[in-house]
């Protein structure tokens, strides 16, 4: 399940911080929802709305595991209790079927419910604030006429009063979530870049994961004009670290071409890396369905973001580790663990097999400051999911059930420092911390088999 832990921490801290400053501001008055005569069953508009809903990945958050699409109920855990996504199907009594366009618009772009309550920012309305009026009309047409109604009541938050009061969120929203402003294409030198910026900043809400947040939990930058923290890499979400999407040559996508980015978004795999964690959902539910023109526009826009660290040197392949492994020297810490468990897929030269098993040499995931993703993928394993244009699925086995914390630390450090990689190192106690928070299950044994470890 995506986002559980982190959103929660954000929500918790936001609620806490706002509780503290609430006394200064006093409660906000609830704004009355306006209504506008607007409705349409136009097939082309509904189809366009469906496309936009995919670009916005509404389904990933608004569907529970094995629940009906868009009926809500996905849990977002917080230390003060849980919140649940809501039913956004057109059922008139439990969903949004009786909402006017103005009410729907206000919830999506401003985070305000028809009754004046503010939504938790787990709903990425600070990003959706950039959507154009036309796109909002298309989304409304789709959610009122293109989605099957499902009668399913929203689950109330599992947060006890007084923390469950929503008015501090209203202050947060006034401070940090901009009012909808028409997206200004004039900032961008050509229409393709402007389209890419609009999609990345708005519907794609890439910054919700890839931009660092402040202590009050708002994203430090909502677009490139806001400064170099935009898309410079976020805190772990469910134990997966959203890496930098800026031009940093080692820790970001500086070494990736526009075509690499397009391929990654459409298939989750390139010569450099494979998608995992929350990014798997983004590729599966959203990016793979976007038109080539739109994915290309997003990639071109991302390629305009300069490196956030001018001192970061380009990656250069180094043959030392591969040579040692090939000549039978596994004396370096972690080298023997790597030789025995990893070479069959990632190879002794760390180059993997493009499109099948990701390269580890030069991979930004292995060179970022935070090694949580690497430890997590080793402990829990992961599956590279098939997409429309790359249908095969490949699995990275879980090693947590048979490698000790010290072995995982050693092999993590081996892959983060071999083949020219310059990642920082970790200790067995760093591994122990991650182990407490991620699933580490032994695979099922066939009948009659005995586990040898
Ligand atoms: C990252 C997760 C996430 C994504 C993506 C997301 N939502 Fe939400 N949304 C939520 C959560 C959680 C809530 C409930 C928040 C609360 O209870 O305060 C919500 C609430 C809403 C509401 C208010 C419903 C009500 O009954 O109050 C609407 C409308 C809505 N979302 C529409 C959308 C649309 C349309 C999209 C796609 C363009 C979308 N959401 C994408 C998480 C998400
Ligand atoms: C739900 C959180 C989430 C959202 C939203 C999200 N990402 Fe990611 N993304 C991740 C995580 C986690 C990783 C690291 C795992 C990986 O490399 O696949 C990642 C990795 C990536 C990578 C690979 C970078 C590398 O160095 O390996 C690219 C490219 C990327 N994201 C692009 C995007 C774009 C473009 C968007 C918006 C359309 C987006 N992401 C939205 C979580 C997210
Ligand atoms: C059976 C083949 C296989 C073996 C053995 C294997 N891996 Fe993987 N590995 C994969 C696949 C497939 C992925 C992509 C998973 C995904 O995208 O969700 C992956 C992903 C990774 C990643 C994340 C990089 C990225 O861009 O996705 C790291 C780091 C990694 N493996 C390290 C290791 C180490 C270290 C070992 C040995 C302890 C190992 N792997 C053993 C197949 C394997």
Q: Which short descriptors sum up this protein?
A:
Cytochrome Bc1 Complex, Chain D, domain 2, binds heme C, two-stranded antiparallel sheet, 453 residues, oxidoreductase activity, acting on CH-OH group of donors, two-stranded antiparallel ribbon, heme binding, mainly alpha, single chain, 3 domains, 18 helices
Count of DSSP helices?
A: 18
Query: How many domains in all?
Result: 3
Rg is 23 Å
Output the structural class: mainly alpha
Subcellular location: Cell membrane
Main location: membrane
Protein name: Cytochrome c, mono-and diheme variants
Cofactor: heme c
Describe this structure in words.
The protein has 453 residues and is mainly α. It has helices spanning 4-25, 43-55, 58-62, 101-110, 125-128, 133-145, 167-176, 191-201, 207-210, 258-267, 278-286, 292-302, 320-326, 335-341, 343-346, 372-380, 405-417, 428-435; strands at 75-78, 81-84, 382-384, 394-396. The strands form two sheets. A two-stranded antiparallel sheet has the order 1-2. A two-stranded antiparallel sheet has the order 3-4. One heme C binds next to helix 3 and helix 4.
Short description:
This protein is mainly α and 453 residues long. It contains 18 helices and four strands.
Could you outline the blueprint of secondary structure elements for this entry?
Elements: H1 4-25, H2 43-55, H3 58-62, E1 75-78, E2 81-84, H4 101-110, H5 125-128, H6 133-145, H7 167-176, H8 191-201, H9 207-210, H10 258-267, H11 278-286, H12 292-302, H13 320-326, H14 335-341, H15 343-346, H16 372-380, E3 382-384, E4 394-396, H17 405-417, H18 428-435
Antiparallel strand pairs: 1-2, 3-4
């Amino acid at each position: 399940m995506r986002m559980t832990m982190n959103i929660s921490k954000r929500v918790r801290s936001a609620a806490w911080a706002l509780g503290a400053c609430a006394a200064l501001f006093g409660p906000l008055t609830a704004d009355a929802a306006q209504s506008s005569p607007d409705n349409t069953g136009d097939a082309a508009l509904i189809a366009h709305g469906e496309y936009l809903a995919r670009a916005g990945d509404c389904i990933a958050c608004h569907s529970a595991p094995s629940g009906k699409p868009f009926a809500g109920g996905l849990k977002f855990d917080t230390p003060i209790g849980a919140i649940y996504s809501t039913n956004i199907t057109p059922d008139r009594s439990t969903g949004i079927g009786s909402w006017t366009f103005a009410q729907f618009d206000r919830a999506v772009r401003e985070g305000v419910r028809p009754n004046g309550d503010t939504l938790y920012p787990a709903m990425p309305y600070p990003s959706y604030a950039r959507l154009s009026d036309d796109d909002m009309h298309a989304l409304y047409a789709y959610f009122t006429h293109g989605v099957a109604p499902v009668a399913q009541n929203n689950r109330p938050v599992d947060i006890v009063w007084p923390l469950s009061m929503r008015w501090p969120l209203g202050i947060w929203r006034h401070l940090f979530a901009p009012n909808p402003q028409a997206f200004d294409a004039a900032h961008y030198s050509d229409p393709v870049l402007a389209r890419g910026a609009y999609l990345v900043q708005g519907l794609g809400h890439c910054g919700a994961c890839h931009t660092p947040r402040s202590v009050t939990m708002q994203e430090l930058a909502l677009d490139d004009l806001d400064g170099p923290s935009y898309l410079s890499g976020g805190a772990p979400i469910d134990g997966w670290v959203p890496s930098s999407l800026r031009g940093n040559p080692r820790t970001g996508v500086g070494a990736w071409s526009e075509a690499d980015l397009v391929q990654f978004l459409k298939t989750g795999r390139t010569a450099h890396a494979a998608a995992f964690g929350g990014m798997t959902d983004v590729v599966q539910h959203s990016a793979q369905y976007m038109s080539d023109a739109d994915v290309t526009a997003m990639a071109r826009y991302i390629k305009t973001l300069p490196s956030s660290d001018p001192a970061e040197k380009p990656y250069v392949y180094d043959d030392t580790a591969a040579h040692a492994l090939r000549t039978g020297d596994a004396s370096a810490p972690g080298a023997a663990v790597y030789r025995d468990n990893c070479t069959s897929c990632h190879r002794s030269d760390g180059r993997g097999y493009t499109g099948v098993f990701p390269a580890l040499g030069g991979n930004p995931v292995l060179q970022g400051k935070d090694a949580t993703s690497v430890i997590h993928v080793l402990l829990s394993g992961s599956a590279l999911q098939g997409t429309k244009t790359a249908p095969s699925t490949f699995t990275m086995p879980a090693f947590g059930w048979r490698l000790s914390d010290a072995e995982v630390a050693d092999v993590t450090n081996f892959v983060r420092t071999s083949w020219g990689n310059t990642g920082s190192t970790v200790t067995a106690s760093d591994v122990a911390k991650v182990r407490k928070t991620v699933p580490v299950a032994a695979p099922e044994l066939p009948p009659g088999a005995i586990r040898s470890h």
